[in-house]
Amino acid sequence: MAAAPGDDMIGRPAATPEALLVPIAPDRLERPVFAVFADCAARNPRAPAVLGPGAATTYGDLLGQALRIAAAIDGRRGARGEGLGGEGLGGEGSGGEGPEPVAVAIPASAGCLAALLGALAAGRPYVPIDPSFPAARNELILGHAGVRLVLTDRATAAGRPELMAAAMAAGATVLAIDDLAPPPAGWSPRGGPDDAAYVLYTSGSTGRPKGVWQTQRGLLHDVFQYRDVLDISAADRLTWLYSPAVNGAIRDMYGALLAGAAVIPVDLRTEGVAAAGRRFAATRPTIFHAMPTVLRVLADGGAGPAALGGIRVAYLAGERILAADLARVFADAPADARIYVGIGSTENATIYRHWLIDRETCPTNGVVPVGWPVADRSMRLVDAGGRPVPDGDIGEIEVESRYMAAGYWRDPELTAATFLTGGDVAPGARRLRPGDLGRIRADGQLEFLGRADGQLKIRGHRVEPAEVEAALRALPGVGDAAVLPDRTPQGETALAGVVVPAPGRLIDPAALRSRLAAELPPHLVPRRLLVMAELPRLANFKLDGRALADCLADLPTVPLASPAPALVSVGETGDPALADAVDRAWAEMFGAAAPLAGMTFTELGGDSLELMRFATRVETLAGRPLPVTLLNGAITPADLRRALSGGMAGVTDRLLFFVPGVMGMARHLIVLAARCAGMATVRLVALPDLDAELSRRRGIEDLAAEVADRIAAHLTGAAGPDGATPDFGLVGLSFGGRLAVAAAQILADRGLVAGMVVVGDIVASHDDAASLLQAGRIPEPSPGFRRRLVRGIGQPMSKLFFTLAQRPDHRALRLVAAFARRAAPGRRNRIRVERALISAIRRAMIVGWQPGRLDCRLLLIVTSHTRSSYAGHGHLLGWDRVSSDVRLVEVAGDHAALATDEANLARIVAAIGDAWPDQPSA
């Protein structure tokens, strides 16, 4: 790319400390950001700007879309009541300091970049909003920033109703960027170098996010420093792995767009490692930028060669960098590739130390130093009193520059306390202590030693947790590790550790601690260890220390084990697929921060439906059943692994598939399934979760087809050498009975005929929606005030959900559901809301549905309550029209008595055993 006047390049990536200190010429910073981008677009409008998953977006296309967005923003100054698709979602108004910010709530894409550039062209700072963030956090950000206009696209608006609800709650207008009109004649971009460019929200120490804002001049300085050091040109292709809402994305986005290069947006959270590898293989990035954590995920997932095979520079920053991380890069990168490392913060608005590493200068062990000084930024180490520390001593990092962030948005007190001026601070500059500790090595490089509030002193020894983390990661079979401060019962400082097993391995915490004690002094050995499926991460992929600390709160001390191998392969503990699937499903159910030992399913807040989902997820991951007899609220992953280590006993040549229905019957189905495990191999069939059901309106046939697909896959896997499938039956209670019947009919059409279908306590069909509102209701004896209050609120809400669920379009239901889920106080009430939602959706499927004919036996379970409620439906409740071979078992009580009364359970289990035909029906 031909450089613009006053915008010369260095010529090649800088190598020496002196070359890294070349400052940015001030005249290069006297232009608006959008003008620099527009020059690149004018220079080569057909060049690719964004290499997304579909067709590439050219600079000309991106410029045109940005101008349309800018003109639309400009035209809405003072406008009120115009929302997405013409529907009013709020109004614009005054607020904020300087021009009112515009929120951009679009995932990393060409549309996101066009919206960011459009805001700048309209002379407005932007607030990037990650649509995947919790709605409560996004609402808090929108309100604090004073946003009255939210830019999104129609796909995001349709897929994220909770985001629309957050915008409404914040009083903002939502504008879809799709299909906007061109700017009117005579319109031109606004903005200047000292105008606000962006407001980025970071997590504050108080738990409330803080908005860090920067000027366009400061943004240009950051990007030009990065561009000059790496000599970024129009021939480059830069990765974009960070969320637009975090500081790490700034250099990816503008490093490409202000140099005529192309950017490759990839969201690992939604696309996954395999898809990212395919994208990188197709686009061949030349500059790779990621945190070491993300690098490890890509490399371990097999995407390393695609991501790094064509690079000339890999930029690693954001957390401690290990020598092993450099080795990962050089293992897949070309011979002449270099690695760029550095350290900075959102408040610094760029890095303040950096280093370019080649194969000859690559450290071979330990933590990598973060480099030499950066031009236009001075750094020193000071003590608690602000005095410089002697060379070689540890001190708190202090940075001074004219190009820091401008401050905290709408928080002048915090800005004044954090960004210091006056005294010995240079004129026009500000001074900041980011809260990090460091030490200058003999070669002049900065050695980063962690947070100032994270330094520990144990038994008189100064301890750096990173040293223990490195020792844990070095042990065979450990995939990742983190170390946190801990307290002994006597109040003394100690360490606690979290380890993640490498793929295909299990970790014994006691044996691992013994192994570590043989290599480290006692004060460096964590007194407690937690094994997790993965380390909890924030949206920017940094370690979530608060979540880790919460997980460790109730973890007992790990005793030193007797001499034994520290790590055991899952292949030595029975069924490896099941053992690994248990841990993965547990982490998916309760989050990555959920402990794998010590806390039971119930203690973590799991209910009966989640227990069923957990079991079916384990089965899906492992490709084989989890014994239903092991399922109860007192289980832990450790309990399950121990039980599974003995192998799978008691499997028969018959299969019973239990089909769940509405949420209230999940516990009953699990109890019944466990009692039937002796007569057949019992399997639970997973159903889609609430979010999947909310995504589109479906009928019972659609859901039944999914059930049939899952059962058919199981049967195929259980087929004998001759291809013959085992005898099988389906069991469903309440709505699950209808699903079982519909699925059995679909399977029969495919040549897979069930021996029997068990239907629990329902009539064959409902003629109208009104009768469905009473279906399956269990009478409540003498409810107390609290129960009456909950029911008084819940019943109208359930009726509203049911009414909306019957509509052909689920958009209104999604919007109401987003509000209700967000407004529900606490986990228990949120679960109640979700139960009501899924129940309403499933009930709506029944309206007008008529079961077809079954060519197999049907066992009908009927309670006395259901018998009296539906006396007009005949002795067999209409099921004699579905099957010519109906058997009946009647039990006392109501729906709940199906699984809570021992006599009823015994009768039902015996009836299922007696009703099973010797051979499946023809």
From TrEMBL:
GO annotations of cellular component type: cytoplasm
Keyword Phosphoprotein part of the UniProt annotation: yes
GO biological process terms on file: amino acid activation for nonribosomal peptide biosynthetic process; secondary metabolite biosynthetic process
Keywords for this protein: Ligase, Phosphopantetheine, Phosphoprotein
GO molecular function terms listed in the Swiss-Prot or TrEMBL record: ligase activity; phosphopantetheine binding
InterPro entries reported for this sequence: AB_hydrolase_fold, ACP-like_sf, AMP-bd_C, AMP-bd_C_sf, AMP-binding_CS, AMP-dep_synth/lig_dom, ANL_N_sf, PKS_PP-bd
Keyword Ligase: yes
Domain annotation Polyketide synthase-like phosphopantetheine-binding: ranges: 579-648
Protein name per the record: AMP-dependent synthetase and ligase
Organism in which the protein naturally occurs: Tistrella mobilis (strain KA081020-065)
Gene: ppsD
